[in-house]
Amino acid sequence: MLDAQQLMWTQIAAGISVLLFGLMLFNLVRTRARMLAAASWDRVEGIITVSRVDQPASHASDDQNDAKPVIRYRYQAGGQELESDQVFVGGQVITTRVLAAKLIGRYPVGAHVDVHVDPKQPTEALLEPAAAQNLAALVAFTIVFAVIAATLTAHSLAGHVLYSNNGVPLFAFALPVIVLAGGVFCVASYVRTRRLASASLRWPTAAGRVTHCEVIEEVIEEKSDDDKSRSSRLQYRYQIDLRYAYRVGKRDFIGTEVDWGGTMISGLREVAEKAAAKYRPGQTVKVYYDPDQPGHAVLEPASREGALGPLIGAAVCAVVGGLFLTILIRIGFA
Fold it and tell me: Which tens digits make up the pLDDT trace of 178-194?
């Protein structure tokens, strides 16, 4: 049974959790609604004026989210010349140096781009209205805070911590449920990727040219603390920075995706160099592009490289979450 002070703090925590859950849910619904609305915005021509990566001078590890892609563009709408730096719904986020460089590689200075403009408010514009960088994280945090809010609210209403028949706290069951939910997301990601791969096989094609292909070396600093000293170890990993130019109608585009399996990351330079050798600067390639979003393109739509990653993640979540949940059920209700 919770005493008066414990109950008060539990109720305060429950109120804060419910408030945070409500704010996240509101932001999630608003972001999704904005994405749907932006899909029907007017499309005008714009030109990239700034394309760079902002990163602090004290950068120590390429695994840190300390880089911000800065992309600015000019366009004309409503009888006036305007400027914006919004690429996605929700704005830019801080990310790793490599991912930031990959994004700005698609929008070099001087490139002509399609700008999606809100007809009711021309100052509101986006380059990629169908994408939102922080949507997946927002969904995950909303679910987590929903579980926390529900647990604390139940404790507050009951006046004590809720237990199973054998004394296991019921909030302990939330962890395996969240892990299993992660497995469901992995399966959904796999299904979405396979559908996209199947659809892209029927996309129209355009002649493209490889403009850039090199191996990027990332230096990851791993710190370890022990009783006697603090030490760090550098780990190296490699991935391919590929860019190819193609034209659809009167518009030029820069693509960066090879297939739908995601960016290949290897701990061996030789493996990355072998994969990069398939594409040489100046090489002609066939580009499959989305007719509704020509900037969305791929070179190898039929490739299954890396396609099993989400399924492996789902299997791990199913085994770990299922085993943990089974143990808790047996201990708590046997």
Answer: 898 888 888 888 888 88
- Which whole-number Å values give the CA distances from 327 to 168, 181, 313, 333, in the listed order? 11, 18, 21, 10
* Cα angle 221-227-230, degrees, rounded to a multiple of 5: 25
The span from the CA of 148 to the CA of 17, in Å, is: 7
Distance CA 7, CA 4 (A): 5
Measured distance CA(84)–CA(228) in Å, rounded: 52
Between β-strands 205-225 and 121-126, what pairing exists: parallel, antiparallel or unpaired? unpaired
Q: List, as one string, the DSSP characters of 304-327.
A: -TTTTHHHHHHHHHHHHHHHHHHH
- Residues composing the chain: 334
Where is average pLDDT lowest: 89-93, 188-192, 217-221, 298-302? 89-93
* Residue 76 banded pLDDT, cuts 50, 70, 90: very high
The predicted structure's pLDDT at residue 233: 78
Instruction: Say if CB 281 and CB 240 are below 8 A apart.
Output: no
**How is residue 78 written in tokens?**
């409503």
Distance, in Å, from the CA atom of 279 to the CA atom of 142, rounded to the nearest integer, reads 41
Residue 292 is given by DSSP the state S
Helix (H) or strand (E) holding 298: strand 297-298
Mean local confidence (pLDDT), 53-57: 85
**pLDDT of 228 over the 60 cut:** no
Average pLDDT rounded to a whole number, residues 246-262: 87
DSSP track, 107-158: S-TT-EEEEEEETTEEEEEES-TT--TTHHHHHHHHHHHHHHHHHHHHHHHH
The average pLDDT across 132-151 equals: 81
Q: Which residue has the tokens 């997301």?
A: 185
d(CA 317, CA 178): 9
Give the mean model confidence (pLDDT) for residues 75-99: 87
